[in-house]
């Protein structure tokens, strides 16, 4: 396997997880050009969190609520809260009354306002409810598929969106594209089918639609996308995928 590809995969885990594999800015552009690696990382994250969730099912007398809560603790312990911060910033920006420039200023503000808190709280409530509603024995394939859908959402937003300014988001937006998105979509579809059969393809549709809507909303509200918009698509993609799985 070429060294650059190995470096990109390592950077993918370093960028998207809390695993101390090492990450440097020099490898970021290489990772952005191979953004389909996000799907592989997402599958690994789902496998890890789902594996812990499966092990928890053997603990006697554990309620579904405690099981769901511990599953989410495992998930966020592995992924950190970096993308949740993006959701909070986007929430603040969308609820800001004013010009496009004022909304962008709010997104860059390090403080979290009422809009960001509301978006995160509602997201957590829906995420928790979705995990509780899924049978504990089905959470392993559910989390694998949901994490893949979350990463596919990020690839979609980066590939279809136009960056508002030079920064972390622009490096992914400028180095990705339609071909990268198609490769990521095919990989995600393969994982979804392996986990849920043909029905797995239906799970990917809501995140895809939501991410497309997010790009259009970001264009209207902010004049394009940035790192926060890409990050928020991860949280929303995972959430809507788990909600969809709860209906299977």
- Which of globular, elongated, flat, extended, rod-shaped describes the shape? globular
- The tally of structural domains comes to 1
Please tell me the overall pLDDT.
91
**Assembly level:** single chain
Overall structural class, as computed from helix and strand content, comes to: mainly alpha
What does it look like?
By secondary structure, the chain is mainly alpha-helical. It has one domain. Helices cover 77% and strands 0% of the residues. It has twelve helices and no strands. It has helices spanning 3-16, 28-33, 37-56, 64-79, 82-94, 100-108, 114-133, 139-160, 168-175, 178-196, 199-222, 227-246. The model has no long low-confidence stretch (mean pLDDT 91).
Question: What is shown here, in short?
Answer:
The chain has one domain (36-246). Helix content is 77%, strand content 0%. The chain has helices at 3-16, 28-33, 37-56, 64-79, 82-94, 100-108, 114-133, 139-160, 168-175, 178-196, 199-222, 227-246.
Question: Topology of this structure?
Answer:
Elements: H1 3-16, H2 28-33, H3 37-56, H4 64-79, H5 82-94, H6 100-108, H7 114-133, H8 139-160, H9 168-175, H10 178-196, H11 199-222, H12 227-246
Helix pairs in contact: 1-3, 3-4, 3-8, 3-10, 5-6, 5-7, 5-12, 7-12, 8-9, 8-10, 8-11, 8-12, 10-11, 11-12
Keywords for this entry:
12 helices, 248 residues, mainly alpha
């Amino acid at each position: 396997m070429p060294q650059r590809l190995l470096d990109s995969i390592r950077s993918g885990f370093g960028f998207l997880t809390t695993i101390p594999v090492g990450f440097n800015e020099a490898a970021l552009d290489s990772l952005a050009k191979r953004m389909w690696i996000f799907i592989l990382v997402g599958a690994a994250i789902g496998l890890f969190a789902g594996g812990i969730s499966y092990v928890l099912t053997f603990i006697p007398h554990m309620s579904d609520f405690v099981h769901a809560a511990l599953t989410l603790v495992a998930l966020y312990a592995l992924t950190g809260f970096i993308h949740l911060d993006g959701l909070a910033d986007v929430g603040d920006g969308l609820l800001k009354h004013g010009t496009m420039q004022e909304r962008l200023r709010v997104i860059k503000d390090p403080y979290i306002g009422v809009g960001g808190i509301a978006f995160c709280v509602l997201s957590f409530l829906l995420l928790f409810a979705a995990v509780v509603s899924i049978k504990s024995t089905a959470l392993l394939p559910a989390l694998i598929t949901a994490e893949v859908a979350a990463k596919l959402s990020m690839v979609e937003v980066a590939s279809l969106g136009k960056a508002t300014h030079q920064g972390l988001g622009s490096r992914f937006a400028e180095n990705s594209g339609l071909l990268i998105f198609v490769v990521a979509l095919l990989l995600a579809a393969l994982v979804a089918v392996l986990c849920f059969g043909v029905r797995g393809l239906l799970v990917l549709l809501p995140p895809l639609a939501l991410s497309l809507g997010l790009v259009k909303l970001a264009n209207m509200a902010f004049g394009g996308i940035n790192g926060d918009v890409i990050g928020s698509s991860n949280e929303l993609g995972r959430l809507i995928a788990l909600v969809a799985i709860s209906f299977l």
